[in-house]
Amino acid sequence: MPDRSFRADEQILLIDRKKRRYLVTLAEGGEFHTHSGFIPHDDIIGKPEGAPLRSTRGATFTAFRPTLSDFVLKMPRGAQVIYPKDLGPILMLADIFPGARVLESGVGSGALSMTLLRAGAIVTGYEIRADFAARAVKNVLAFGGPELAEHYRVEERDCYEGISEESLDRIVLDLPEPWLVVPHAETALRPGGILVAYTPTIIQAVQLRERMVESGFELAETIEVLHRGWNIDGTSVRPDHRMVAHTGFLTHARLLPGQ
Length: 259
Ligand code: SAH
Known about the structure:
This protein is an alpha/beta fold. It folds into two domains: 11-66, Vcp-like ATPase, Chain A, domain 2 (Roll); 69-255, Rossmann fold, CATH 3.40.50. The protein is built from seven helices and 15 strands. The chain has helices at 41-44, 68-74, 84-93, 111-118, 130-144, 182-188, 202-213, and strands at residues 11-16, 21-25, 31-34, 37-40, 52-54, 60-64, 101-105, 122-127, 152-156, 168-173, 189-199, 217-223, 230-233, 236-239, 249-255. A seven-stranded mixed β-sheet has the order 9-8-7-10-11-15-12, with helices on both faces. Bound molecules: S-adenosyl-L-homocysteine. Residues 79-82, 105-106, 108-112, 126-129, 132, 158-160, 174-176 line the site of S-adenosyl-L-homocysteine.
């Protein structure tokens, strides 16, 4: 059995009694400070996941390795991220598979990149802002490990001006005017390739769909994903009072062979 206890230099999630979550990078000699004292990192290093921890002033915490979803919600962000509720469905709509050659633009904070890479894709990202590109690479490698660099490359460039890659399997877009990418996607994707675009507003989705009508894309669909949590506590069994009612729309389509 491999040793799965916590090591120095890895990122962990500390959860307090009120279920508040903190992303912490373990360092020998480091300390995690809270309102109720601190926990020396050396108390955590060498412990297994889920082990109970106690701060110097008696507050209890539990430590886990962050899931992809935990990490996306807690990592340092430049741009707004796509939320886990949409990241999972994007993998299905784009039909991401191990070894798929994917172009992603814009890259933002890298939440979608991590998700695509985890499903085995080989990702080229186009990001117009150098600071976001650097942040995304940092986040992706922090979560997935340095070996992911073999599968992930981000170029600082404007996706509206064209795509240099050829015979791509998939293109996944999260930028303001995805319809401007449609003509480039028609030549960069292989026949049968899939385009998916995330757009916060329905006007953007409609504009994209209208541009697709006169293109080589077929089987276009636009969906939104509603995610409603439930409170299950004794006899109080009901939907949560609060929910994230809106994030964005997902539009997907497949490319036909050129005439
Ligand atoms: N999907 C990302 C968030 C992307 S935010 C995530 O999950 O983390 C949108 C990004 O698109 C921003 O970083 C913005 O700089 C970038 N962008 C906007 N227009 C662009 C363009 N024409 N070409 C490339 N990137 C662009």
